[in-house]
Amino acid sequence: MNIYRAAFAAGFGRAVRQPGDLAVRAGFYLLLLLTFAALWNAATAAQGGDIEGYTFAALVWYVVAAEGAVNATKPRLIEEIGDAIGSGLIAVEMLRPVSVVGFRLAAETGEALARVLAVVVPGAVVVLLAEGPPPSSAGALLAVPSLVLAFGCNLAGQHVFAASAFWVNDAKATWFLYQKFVFLLGGMLLPLEFLPGGLEFWARTLPFWTMAYAPARLLSGRAEPMLLLGQVVWLVALVAAALAVFGAGERRLQVAGG
Amino acid sequence: MAAIDVRHLSKTFTTGSRRRRGSIEAVRDISFSVAEGERLAYIGPNGAGKSTSIKMLTGILYPTDGDASVLGYVPWCERRALVRHIGTLFGQRSQLWSELPARRSLELLGTIYGLGDPASRIAELAELLEAAPLLDVPVRNLSLGQRMRCELAAAMLHEPRILFLDEPTIGLDLVAKQRFREAVMRLNSDRGTTIFLTSHDVADIEHVARRVIVINHGALIYDDKVSAMRRSLLRTKLVEVRFDEEPGPIDIEGVEVLKAAALGYKLTVDTARRPIRAVLDDLLDGYAVGDISVVDPPLERVISQIYETPR
Questions:
Q1: What is the dihedral of CA A173, A178, A180, A183, to 10 degrees?
Q2: Which residues of chain A does B80 touch, with a Cβ-Cβ cutoff of 8 Å?
């Protein structure tokens, strides 16, 4: 456990040592907040004040969490892992007495925490000053651990998808697909309630809702603890899947080379 | 007990799709052993099977056939246990996090290997490798030569008994290469670390290794001391002569003029056709020789001669 704690701390340190990256992310995030705020302002006004029960203020707080959770992870992590597998760098990691995927997940979680603090805190302060506090304080409290679970699920999910590089040697197409899933089915673009029936069903069935929708729904005023429970279940499942797929990939590498 | 013991090791990769299935024999039936503290160069041309061999010996690859024991472990079955006792340095793949100072990566590696006091071990290695001033600089700001010394510290942090170096000096300038070789030699002499080196740089082989194994097309084709390789495989000698007057055509059996500039000549002698002593006698008796010297051809030439051995 000590190893993973150290990896987490090193990952946090790595993100903090890149203030330029954090500043660009925070700037881009604030720009997104302003853009979405303008869009939702027009949309809610046109719909008579709310859409599917979401008021303008609720939607702005929704964006704070949804964009913040996804912004915390590296945008091209899948490609980066795929490159490490394709270039053989992963072999260097296999030569350490520690789980490759466990170590990577711990370090990436540390980095993601630093980023989420750097983007969501200023974003939340701006929205607080402009629109007042989140609609529900209980929901806001639940949104904090949910945000951490969200990027945890996202990181584990990216490792599952990236492991395809053990077989296909290139994770670029996988990254493209994954990004679209999180964008649409994860609730990053719109709350899942806004999706057409069939799509909403798949969005709620697949794990992507844990990566943006869950904390966003909580921060937008719904104190629904079951969302957190669902995230925990999916986190366990995704980490187990990442460990299993990487394990299979490592065994394939041992047999077939790379 | 030998540090490394390899018996009839082979690795065949399957290639292509189901319809056009093929295979490549990357390593074919190689056997050798390496004693503790030995300095071995494991060389061969590109695609000879060097990296595949290293991957099998470090447990990253399963062999198709044969056995190997590294420090008593079967690498591909006991990789997690083995890696606590070996260090690896791959020239183009870093163990260090580029955004962090090397010290931070070393501390992290210290935790991974469960070192009780990583700080004192880091200080010790920093002194040995003359890397102390580099440790607090972010790795991305180090030159390649400086980074490689930090990489070596990372590979040696857990006091491995064997150090696998795969093209460690690739891309380094002459001074950095020399410093790196000296650091490796110090590790070997001070700690008795076994060195297993692959390199295309002949100077690495000459300065670091005492023994050389050559593989080509996956098969072991030569295994002897570096000095013995130079002697036994040298069929040619280089003779540099300065004549006192224009010598005219040089017509001695087994001798070819490699280069002629004014009165200075560079000749090659095929010692299988005529012994060097006889050639020297012919030159001294038949020409007005002002100065003469005999040298071995560079090791590089000897190695290319071995590589060109038909399959």
A1: -150
A2: 97
Share the mean pLDDT of chain B.
Answer: 88
Question: With 60 as the cut, is the pLDDT of residue A32 above it?
Answer: yes
A81 CA to chain B: closest CA distance, Å?
14
From chain B residues 95-124, the ones with a CB under 8 A of any chain A CB are 95, 97, 99-100, 104-105, 107-109, 111-113
Residues of B in contact with A94 (CB under 8 A): 59-60, 79
Cβ contact A97–B93 (<8 Å): no
Strands (E), A156-237: none
Contact assessment for residue A172 and residue A237, using Cβ atoms and an 8 Å cutoff = no
Q: How many domains does chain B have?
A: 2
Question: Which of B21, B93, B162 to mutate to probe the A interface, most A CBs <10 Å?
Answer: B93
End-to-end CA distance of chain B: 33
Contact list, A86 vs chain B (CB under 8 Å): none
Of B13, B60, B94, the CB nearest to A94: B60
* Same-domain status, B78 and B99: yes
**Do B259 and B174 sit in the same domain of this protein?**
no
Q: How far apart, in whole angstroms, are the C-alpha atoms of residue B68 and residue B27?
A: 13
Instruction: Tell me if A14 and B99 make a contact (CB, 8 A cut-off).
Output: yes
ipTM for the predicted complex comes to 0.83
- Cβ-based neighbours of A10, under 8 Å, separated by 6 or more: A107, A110, B97, B100, B104, B105, B108
- A96 contacts in chain B (CB < 8 Å): 83, 109, 112
B140 and B265 fall within a common domain: no
Query: Among residues A135, A145, A120, which one has the least CA distance to residue A222?
Result: A135
Pairwise CB contact (< 8 Å): A92 & B95 = yes
**By residue range, what is the domain housing residue B180?**
4-230
Q: Which of B183, B203, B230 is the last residue of a domain?
A: B230
The confidence score (pLDDT) of residue B194 equals 96
CA distance A252 to chain B (A): 9
- CATH number of the domain encompassing residue B31: 3.40.50.300
Q: Are residues B15 and B72 in the same domain?
A: yes
Residues B87 and B162 in one domain: yes
pLDDT value for B18: 67
Among the listed residues B18, B41, B46, the one whose alpha carbon sits nearest the alpha carbon of residue B194: B41
Task: Indicate the SS3 state at residue A17.
Answer: coil
Residues of chain B numbered 122-161 and touching chain A (CB < 8 Å): 138
> Domain boundaries in chain A?
2-256
- Rounded to whole angstroms, how far apart are CA atoms B109 and A112? 21
Q: Tell me how far apart the alpha carbons of residues A90 and A162 are, in angstroms, rounded to a whole number.
A: 12
Phi/psi class of residue A48: alpha, beta or left (left: φ > 0; alpha: ψ in -120 to 50)? Answer: left
d(CA A67, CA A182): 11
Question: Is B305 domain-assigned?
Answer: no
Write out the two tokens for A18. Answer: 């890149």
Position A115 pLDDT exceeds 80: yes
Q: Which residue has the higher pLDDT, B302 or B172?
A: B172
